[in-house]
C-alpha cells in the first residue's frame, strides 16, 4: 500500500512486540542560555523511568531569548537525552519559541538535523512552522495509530498571520470581560484545520478506515474549560491551579476534530501548573504540565509549599488491539527521585 506523502517520516514509529506504543510528552522546558543542568537531568530521569518508544516536546522548549549561536547550544542540550539513546522524538513550537534573532524556520532546520528527530516543517503555504503527521505502524506493517502536531503560534502582539480589518487586536479582540483567562494568545488558523481535515480524509481513503490519533499543540483549546466546569461528568482528574490560557478566538479546531472522528486525544502544555485531563464528547483532553526548572512552578501560596512538586511529563500508552483507547497519566520527577529534582 502506498501511503500519502505527508505520512513519510525519517524513521518509522512502531508498536513493540507486545503491541504497545508509549509516548512521553515533556513540555515547557523554557531552556535558556543559562543552560539549567537540572532540567536536562529531569528529562533523563523521566526517560529512564518511563522507557518510552517516542518523546514529544510540547512547546516553549527554549525561552526564545537567544542568539543563533546560543540556540544551537540549547538545542544540543535538550536533544541529548533522546539522541544519546537513539530514541525517536519530535516537537511542537510554543509561544516562547521565537525571538527577533532566531526564527522558527531557523530552529526547525536545527531540529530536523538531529538524527532521531522526526519533526517536519510542514507545507510551506500553512501558517506557522511544524504542522505535520507521524504514523505508528502495527504488526501488519500498516499504520495503526497516528500523531498530529500543530503550531499554535504566539500572541496577538506578534501574530503569525495579520488580522484583516483589525488594526489593534488588544483593543478590538481583547474586551474587558473575557471568555477565557485574560489571555492574549493566538489560535490555530483555518488553513491548518483544513490541512488536518483534508489529510485525514486522504489517509482514510488510503487505509479504508479512520486512524485513531493523538493531537499535540502548545496552547490549549477553549474546550478545556468544559473539563473543569464539569469535572464529575467528564471524569476529570489532576490539578487545576491556574486559569486556562486559551485564545479569545475559538478556531473551531475541536468541532472539526469531533466531525472527523479520528483524533481521540488532544493535549497541550503552556499552563505549567495545570495537570488535569478528562473526556469531553469522547475525546481525551488535558495538559502535560511543565518539566523545565527555569519555568514558573507552583505559587508561593501553594498549600504544599513546594514550587517544584509538579515538574514532570505525561505518559501515553496506546495498544494495537484497541488504539482508540488511550491510557495517560502524569509522572512527577519528585515521585521518582524521592523528593529531589
Report what the structure shows.
- By secondary structure, this protein is α/β, with parallel strands linked by helices.
- It has one domain: Metallo-dependent phosphatases (Purple Acid Phosphatase, chain A, domain 2), CATH 3.60.21.10.
- Helix content is 25%, strand content 18%.
- The chain has nine helices and twelve strands.
- It has helices at 37-50, 68-83, 104-113, 169-172, 190-207, 224-229, 231-234, 253-260, 333-336; strands at residues 13-14, 20-26, 54-57, 89-91, 132-137, 143-149, 213-216, 263-268, 277-280, 283-287, 312-319, 326-332.
- The strands form two sheets. A seven-stranded mixed beta sheet has the order 1-5-6-7-8-10-9.
- Helix 2 (68-83) links the parallel strand 3 and strand 4.
- Helix 1 packs parallel to helix 2, helix 2 packs parallel to helix 3 and helix 5 runs parallel beside helix 8 (253-260).
- The longest helix has 18 residues, at 190-207.
- The protein is globular, with a radius of gyration of 19 Å.
| Structural class by sheet pairing and helices | alpha/beta
In total, the number of domains comes to 1
Record the strand order, biggest sheet: 1-5-6-7-8-10-9
Mean of pLDDT: 95
Rounded to an integer in angstroms, the radius of gyration calculated over CA atoms is 19 Å
- Ends distance: 47 Å
The CATH architecture assignment turns out to be 4-Layer Sandwich
Main sheet summary:
7 strands, mixed
Helicity range of the residues?
10-25%
Order of helices and strands: EEHEHEHEEHHEHHHEEEEEH
Shape: globular
CATH superfamily: Metallo-dependent phosphatases
